[in-house]
Amino acid sequence: MCFGGGKDPAKPSCTGAATPCPAGTADPIDQAIEIVAKSKFAKTEEGKKVLKKIKELRKNGKIVRKKLGKNTLGQWNGSEIEVPDDATDPEFIASSVLVHEATHALNEDEIPASKTKFTIDEEMRTNTNELDLYEEQRARGYRSAELERRRKARKDGKLRDDVRKRYPGLAEHL
Q: Which residue from 109, 107, 93, 100 is spatially nearest to 33, judged by alpha carbons?
């Protein structure tokens, strides 16, 4: 499936269920992986693990496009990262989908009990990693209203409260 770059994740540059990318056009998922790979985040201890997981999932065909709910930015389903089928912007895919969802996958590898119990701690880890990459993306001019909101919460020392509001009733820890 081909989706071109651009700032509007709702506008693919070519359409069709199995439209090949035009010659010389990189898949935005591959472009997003490159964004992560070239980032300062990818050079941190956590970032190295997340990038390794992203590459492993891509190699094994476990990063897939899927129609997701209106407010779902991406999803880890326990075995695959699901990228919204209408997402075209590699910057969006890099932080809001790949880094966030690969962190869920990594969390399950490192803490097997998290496969059956989702916690605020896990979501904090995903949000922290996503925001660390987003700071670099921001410096290049990329903006996401949702990540700006989360960024402000983190700056104000209220990211955990923000996560709790988005996931009411979720256990804090395993």
A: 93
Q: Residue 37 in contact with residue 47, Cβ under 8 Å?
A: no
Q: For residue range 135-153, list pLDDT tens digits in order.
A: 999 999 999 999 999 999 9
Token readout for 43 is: 């050079």
Q: How far, in whole angstroms, is CA 88 from its chain's centroid?
A: 13
Indicate yes or no: pTM above 0.85: yes
Whether 151 and 134 have beta carbons less than 8 Å apart is answered as yes
> E strand or H helix at 163, and its extent?
helix 159-166
Which residue stretches of 7-158 are H helix? 28-37, 45-59, 90-92, 100-110, 120-139, 145-155
